[in-house]
Amino acid sequence: MDLTLAHWLYLVGTLIIIVTMLFRQNVVVPALLMSFIIGWAYDGSFLNGIQVIFNASLTAAGELFHIFLIIAIMTALLQSLKSIGADEQMVSPFLKVMKNGHWSFWILVCITYAMSLFFWPAPSVPLIGALLIPVAIKAGLPPIGAAVAISLAGHGMALSSDYVLQVAPALTASTSSIDAGLLADRALVLSIITGIIALSIAYMSIRKKIIKPSQKNVTEWENNGNNNLKISSDELVVKKSKSSTVFAILVPTTFLIIVAYVIVSTFSNLLPSIEDGAGASIIGGTAILLLMAISISRNYRETLKEVSNYLVNGFVYSFKVMGLVIPIAGFFFIGSDSFSAKILGIENADQAPGFLFDLVQASQHAIPDHAFITGFGILILGMISGLDGSGFSALPLIGSLSEAMAHSAGIDPTTLAAIGQMGAIW
């Protein structure tokens, strides 16, 4: 297909977004403006350009809403666990084994990784930090060591694969034909390798700073802190009961059983396999049932109100975290022939342009057909996109580029996308 003005504008828009990320600025405005300009240039209609702004975001929202939903549900569940004090009981058994700084480092890693897989790092880290960091510091782990352990395990190792909730893999695969479930499997392996290396380097760098256990360690840490900085707390009334212990055991056990089933059914024939994407649905549905059960056990008279409030708060958090991804993903959706017809208002889907694929095909002679160079290039692009602070903004771009460039380089597009995802999140 011959390259048109709209093709070149899409290329310019992509470069503008990458450069904007490089300067650590928000890319929403460039994405919206370039969506408008491309829509206007495609058929010469100013009105169509205006419609494309809305259609692109609407299409992205429709394709990505399941991501917002699973985040909202799991956040609501975590809030309900907090309301009965079960969140503290879930991690309290580990307090007894944090005897020294060395053990404390790796216990923080394991707990943060496990909780971040199920509840995402952002809601989990404050809980872990409030309960376990003082204990780890008392055991002799330096404060920076505790911070590094939690950050690498949660926002790095767990989030880069996002194996349970599969938000990151779904975003990466959203603008391509890459299977999100298979991508999650590849990302899990890469995240474990990357995480082990990063955590080992971190541990070796701080192990000589680990000191003997003492209450004095915590006192000095608290005295060195900024008294003007206070962690805001939600107006949540905690009502502990006998059911707190039950749910502190039931919730993690239930999710571990689900994950174990998914893993065994995926990698063996011992259990019937589940459909692609069904894992997140099972977890989401189970979380809602647990949410209702917790609310009933806490105060059955307030169940209708409490469940609704938890879900509303979950959606608010979900859109705060992921809302800006919608217009950005909308721009990259324009470059895919699977979505461009709907966005540009083309009646015949067979005539839909694939701007990104056409650009890659046209520049094929200038792109080295080498797997290592291609993989390293996608990794660097992911690292640049991660400069925005989250790494999620350009995951759709990484997915579409991986699919377009993989075949000529002789590399599996799913593996290539997983490499880019590592660069973006880490």
TrEMBL record:
Give the species this sequence originates from. Halalkalibacter akibai (strain ATCC 43226 / DSM 21942 / CIP 109018 / JCM 9157 / 1139)
The name this protein goes by in its record: Transporter
User: Where on the tree of life does the source sit, at the highest rank?
Assistant: Bacteria
- Bilayer-crossing residues are 6-24, 31-54, 60-81, 102-121, 127-151, 188-206, 246-267, 279-298, 310-334, 371-398
The UniProt keyword set, sorted, is: Membrane, Transmembrane, Transmembrane helix
